[in-house]
């Protein structure tokens, strides 16, 4: 059986020969993949309206729409789906065209079972790597944005804190209980914001890789601990 990540991978087999579909489906299903099979490219595109596939195994020569045309459509409908072409009518010209259209791999019939499984596994591993790289790039962009926001927000917050301290020391203002309490609350909330921004600034790719729980963290989560009694002490004091 396949590993846990393989169990969730969905593969679509497209071939107009029933025995070929039956064979490929059984081989891949035995490895733990979820496999559907269809006899035509047209039917394959119909299934793409119902669910997403991680990988498509298709013959080149099909009745109606051919394998290369199917490849073009798949790349438009689901750009992340990989396509492996398996055909008994191989030629250098066809292989080059398939590669230019974005096919991941190109196999000739008859294909050895172990070779097929190896190519499929390698394709899905590469797909996982590509998705992880994209996720890390997105996290890096978020981290850089957070640092920039932190720098821009801290400046006006510091000005606000300075004015609060001036009012607290001013005769006739800081001595009034109601005003003093209002200023204290304002100061407390400013420090809450500063701590939230500091956490966002520290949300780097290294942190998200080391602490996966932070990946889905939102600002409200970062602020929660500070908004429940955590604002009594000022970190800068």
Q: Overview of this structure, please?
A:
The chain is an alpha/beta fold. The protein contains nine helices and five strands, in the order αβαβαβαβαβαααα. The protein has two domains: 4-111, Rossmann fold (3-Layer(aba) Sandwich), CATH 3.40.50.2300; 136-227, no CATH class. Helix 4 links the parallel strand 3 and strand 4. The N and C termini lie far apart (59 Å). The model is unreliable at 1-7 and 205-237 (pLDDT under 50).
Keywords summarizing the entry:
rod-shaped, five-stranded parallel beta sheet, 9 helices, disordered C terminus, Rossmann fold, disordered N terminus, 10% strand, 2 domains, alpha/beta, 237 residues
- Helical segment count: 9
> Total strand count, please?
5
Overall mean pLDDT: 75
Q: How large is the radius of gyration?
A: 29 Å
How does the helix and strand content classify structurally? alpha/beta
Low-pLDDT runs of 5+ residues are 1-7, 205-237
User: Please, what is the CATH homologous superfamily of the largest domain?
Assistant: Response regulator
Report the portion of residues in β strands.
5-15%
- DSSP helix fraction: 55-70%
| Major beta sheet summary | 5 strands, parallel
Give the CA-based shape. Answer: rod-shaped
CATH level-3 fold name of the largest domain:
Rossmann fold
Read across the widest sheet, the strand sequence of neighbours is: 2-1-3-4-5
H-E string = HEHEHEHEHEHHHH
First and last CA, distance = 59 Å
What is the highest CATH level, the class of the largest domain? Answer: Alpha Beta
């Amino acid at each position: 059986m396949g590993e846990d990540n393989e169990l969730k991978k969905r593969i679509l087999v497209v071939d107009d020969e029933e025995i070929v579909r039956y064979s490929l489906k059984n081989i891949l299903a035995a490895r733990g993949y979820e496999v559907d099979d269809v006899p035509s490219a047209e039917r394959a595109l119909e299934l793409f309206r119902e669910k997403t596939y991680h990988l498509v195994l298709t013959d080149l020569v099909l009745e109606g729409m051919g394998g290369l045309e199917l490849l073009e459509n798949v790349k438009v409908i689901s750009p992340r789906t990989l396509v492996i072409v398996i055909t008994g009518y191989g030629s250098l010209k066809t292989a080059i065209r398939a590669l230019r259209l974005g096919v991941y791999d190109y196999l000739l019939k008859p294909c050895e079972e172990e070779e097929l499984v190896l190519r499929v596994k390698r394709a899905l591993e590469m797909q996982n790597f590509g998705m992880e790289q994209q996720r890390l790039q997105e996290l890096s962009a978020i981290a850089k944005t957070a640092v920039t926001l932190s720098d821009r927000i801290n400046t006006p917050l510091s000005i606000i804190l300075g004015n609060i301290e001036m009012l607290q020391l001013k005769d006739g203002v800081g001595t009034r209980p109601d005003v003093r309490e209002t200023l204290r609350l304002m100061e407390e909330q400013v420090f809450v914001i500063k701590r939230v921004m500091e956490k966002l600034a520290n949300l780097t790719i290294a942190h998200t890789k080391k602490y996966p729980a932070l990946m889905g963290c939102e600002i409200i989560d970062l602020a929660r601990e500070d908004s429940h009694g955590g604002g009594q002490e000022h970190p800068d004091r």
